C-alpha cells in the first residue's frame, strides 16, 4: 500500500542528501565545465573602487605614500586570520615597494599587541573596535585583504584566508602593484 507521508519523507531525505553531497563536492566537480582546480592567485578579485578611507586609515597610509599597500582586516579571535598573518608580513618584507597595514576589527588592543609579541611581527596597526573602517569598505568576512596601488587606489581584494606564500599569489600581487594605471580624472 502506498503511504504518501512515507513517500514525502523519502523525497525530503533524498533532497537533503543531494544538498549535503553538493556541499562537500570538490570545487572542480561543483562547477559545470570547470576542469581544473583554481590557483590561489585567481582568488584575488579585481577591485575598481572603494569609498574614501576613513581618517584612522588615511593617517596610517599617509607615511606609505608611493608604496603599494596590503590592507589586511583581521582579528585575534579569527583563526584563519591568525594563520595567515606571518605569511602576509613575510610577503610585505620580501617585496620592495610593498607595505602592510593591519586593521584589527572588533578586537581588544591588549589581545592584538600580545598576538604580535607572541609571533614576533610588528606591522603597522589600526584598531577598528567600532568597525568604522570595515563598514566603510564593506568588509563582511575575516580575513579580508585589499591591495592598494602606490597612489592608494584599490586594485585587488581577497576574501577569506589565502596562501600568501603561493607563487600564483605573489605573482599576481607583484604584477598588479607594478602595473601603470591610467590617471583618474
Automatic annotation (TrEMBL):
InterPro entries: AhpC/TSA (IPR000866), TAT_signal (IPR006311), Thioredoxin-like_sf (IPR036249), Thioredoxin_CS (IPR017937), Thioredoxin_domain (IPR013766), Thioredoxin_ResA/DsbE_sf (IPR050553). PROSITE patterns: TAT, THIOREDOXIN_1, THIOREDOXIN_2. Transmembrane segments: none annotated. Keywords: Redox-active center, Signal. Residues 1-30 form the signal peptide. Residues 15-178 form the Thioredoxin domain. This is Redoxin domain-containing protein. It comes from Aromatoleum toluolicum.
Amino acid at each position: 500500500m502506498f503511504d504518501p507521508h512515507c513517500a514525502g519523507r523519502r523525497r525530503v531525505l533524498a533532497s537533503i542528501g543531494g544538498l549535503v553531497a553538493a556541499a562537500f563536492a570538490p570545487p572542480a566537480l561543483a562547477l559545470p565545465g570547470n576542469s581544473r582546480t583554481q590557483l590561489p592567485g585567481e582568488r584575488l578579485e579585481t577591485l575598481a573602487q572603494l569609498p574614501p578611507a576613513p581618517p584612522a586609515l588615511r593617517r596610517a597610509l599617509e607615511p606609505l605614500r608611493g608604496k603599494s599597500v596590503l590592507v589586511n582586516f583581521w582579528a585575534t579571535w579569527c583563526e584563519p586570520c591568525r594563520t595567515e598573518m606571518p605569511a602576509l608580513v613575510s610577503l610585505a618584507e620580501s617585496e620592495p615597494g610593498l607595505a602592510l597595514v593591519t586593521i584589527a576589527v572588533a578586537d581588544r588592543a591588549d589581545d592584538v599587541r600580545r598576538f604580535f609579541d607572541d609571533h614576533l611581527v610588528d606591522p603597522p596597526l589600526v584598531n577598528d573596535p567600532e568597525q568604522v573602517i570595515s563598514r566603510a569598505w564593506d568588509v563582511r568576512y575575516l580575513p579580508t585583504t585589499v591591495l592598494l596601488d602606490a597612489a592608494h587606489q584599490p586594485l585587488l581584494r581577497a576574501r577569506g584566508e589565502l596562501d600568501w606564500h603561493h607563487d600564483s599569489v605573489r605573482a599576481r600581487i607583484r604584477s598588479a602593484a607594478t602595473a601603470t594605471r591610467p590617471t583618474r580624472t
